[in-house]
Design a protein that fits this description.
mainly alpha; 4 helices; 67% helix; elongated
Length: 99
């Protein structure tokens, strides 16, 4: 049976993948000033606020499992989250993302 923590991590992974896919399609759009691209950009803003809200609600679980807010996130940097992420990577050095 899947635990609540894993469910939260998978849900966050799906949400970030959705944002990354939309960003890639906006950046490679053939006509970036078209109405379609503008609407996609507005939808991207909605998705980013959704991810921010989700991260704030489940920040203790996500940060303790090595997840930081999405790079496009508008959340202010939190000292507690960064400490939790660093502790996780000290315990699990192989899971540190490649730069």
């Amino acid at each position: 049976m899947i635990t609540f923590e894993n469910r939260v991590r998978y849900e966050y992974k799906i949400k970030t993948a959705r944002v990354d896919t939309l960003v890639k399609s906006i950046l490679t759009h053939r006509d970036p000033k078209s109405q379609e691209a503008k609407d996609a950009s507005k939808f991207l803003d909605v998705l980013i606020t959704e991810i921010d809200r989700f991260y704030e609600e489940h920040s203790d679980i996500l940060s303790k499992k090595g997840k930081r807010p999405h790079p496009r996130s508008r959340l202010p940097e939190n000292k507690e989250w960064n400490e939790n992420v660093e502790k996780y990577y000290e315990k699990n050095p192989r899971k540190r993302p490649k730069k």
